[in-house]
Amino acid sequence: MQIVQHIDEFQTEDGIGNDILGIQECLNQLGMKNFIVSRKNKSKKKIEKIQNLSQLDTSETMHILHYGGRGYPINSFLALQGKKVLRFHNITPVHLYSGKVSDAMLYSIEKESSYAKMELLQLAEGCDFFLFDSFYNLECFSDMVPCTITKQNSFVLPIVRKYATHKKSANIHTHTITFIGRVVPSKNIEGLLYTLYYLQQINPRYCLDLIGKKNVAFEKYTSYLEELIQDLQLGSSVNWNIEITDEQVTNKLQQSDIYLSLSKHEGFCIPLLESFACGALSFFYGITATPETARGAGIVIAEENYEEIAALIDICNSNYQIKNRVLEKQYNVVKYYNSIDHGALLKSILTHIHGH
Questions:
Q1: Which end of the chain has the least Cβ crowding within 10 Å, N or C?
Q2: Helices 246-254 & 270-277, crossing angle to 10 degrees?
Q3: 190-233, pLDDT tens digit by residue?
Q4: Which residue from 248, 249, 310, 298 is spatially nearest to 273, judged by alpha carbons?
Q5: d(CA 22, CA 227)
Q6: Helices in 37-188 by DSSP H: which ranges?
Q7: Which residues contact 102 (CB under 8 A, 6 or more apart)?
Q8: Measured in Å, how far apart are the chain's first and last C-alpha atoms?
Q9: Cβ distance 279 to 254 under 8 Å?
Q10: Helix 320-339, helix 306-318: angle, nearest 10
């Protein structure tokens, strides 16, 4: 048996790319022949071109399609001989873009979303098995696609990666807040800016590091954020970090007091676990897959009241006992994820699929 992982755009820096590389490492350790096939390779890693796909396909090949939106040629995938597995990473709901992008862009997003749902219907009918990275994504898929998801044809395997732990003292205070994520409306960057505004009323030393790529397609949203920074007089307190290495991201998190995510949609939240591992006191909304990822650690924000969120952050950050207790729980969750034997789990799942 050989495994072929399929992805529309392959890049090693994002969550899906992390997952693909983690799965590949497990397969290599298991001695299983495997390949990565992509329509667009945006990484420096050498992978197979989609034009060579027919050469990799046999009745004994297992094909895993990583799906996070439209792009990969679905009909070609479904026409392959071997067993077909859908690895669903979720798609952002359209309503989260409303009012934050131009009318033309919103129409385009709605159209793409409709096409994606049609593709998922095809995949639900044509795939043999389903592999989700969170129970939240399993539920979303079940809501979007009227197909039968059972214990026999579906599995949940968290994003396959490990997290290097960097413990630090709860007494250290830099008053730096960090967020990692693309500059898109669903990440609710404006919420971070409003929270920073209220935090600076408490202590003007608070500042914000935003780590993530800007997207030219969301120019209206980016312009709105830049204007908001000026309107709130945040100026040099907000630092954009657009193109930085993984090592630099880790350094930023280690230097941060706080990780704050006010994101409205996460299918699985890797940055949250990275913040746990680096000793950043972490706050987030208790919605979508974020609480599932956190496993009871961190501090859940119940309501969208930025002034109250700011007060909560400062109280927790200023109290050694609270901060130390929360950080220890976060480190324990990282320990849990690092203890997962992904290789054994993957082998068990693949053996089950191969035998049916």
A1: C
A2: 60
A3: 999 999 999 999 999 999 999 998 888 899 999 999 999 999 99
A4: 298
A5: 40
A6: 53-56, 74-78, 103-126, 135-144
A7: 220
A8: 13
A9: yes
A10: 90
